[in-house]
Amino acid sequence: MATRDQLLDGALHHLNAHPATSMSELAAAIGVGRATLHRHFATRADLVRAIGERSMERWETTQATTGVREATVSDDADVVRECLRGMLAALTRDAEDFAFVLTDDSMIEDAGLLARMTALQAVEVELMVAGQRTGVLRSDVPAAWLSHLVYGVMVSVREALRAGDLAPRTAADVVVSTFLSGASA
Description:
- The chain is mainly α.
- The protein folds into two domains: 42 residues, Arc Repressor Mutant, subunit A; 131 residues, Tetracycline Repressor, domain 2 (Orthogonal Bundle), CATH 1.10.357.10.
- The chain has eleven helices and no strands.
- It comes from Nocardioides lianchengensis.
- This is DNA-binding transcriptional regulator, AcrR family.
């Protein structure tokens, strides 16, 4: 019997590749019966909301475990840099979640998810401000742009992994080095 998390993982993976998939198609793709999927999620909207809620929980956990709030008030460049490294690596591991949440319009149509997303992004913008203040990040662009850039990278990670252009075992290192060092030679 598939667990709720297994169903969410399967649905997320399939929806990232095929966003318009119906519940019947999702059940078949996951390898469960429609009744099993409907026992956990009455509607497709309920399933998508559950994916969004789990993604927000992972985002909150990432912020807590990597010390984002502490780094936002630090004047130590090493503290901010290590926080950014940890946060980017954790977000990369969960890139499939974040890419879905950032590209599925139903997330911004759900007031509760939008409020959580906005609050979490505000905390990360403050981390970008700390990065700029300590000289870790460039200060000639808006801090909010740097936050948006991170989430654009998460969508790119999802697509690169799916296409086979990025190896899962090296993805976090590539993201961290690209974000902190840029793409210039």
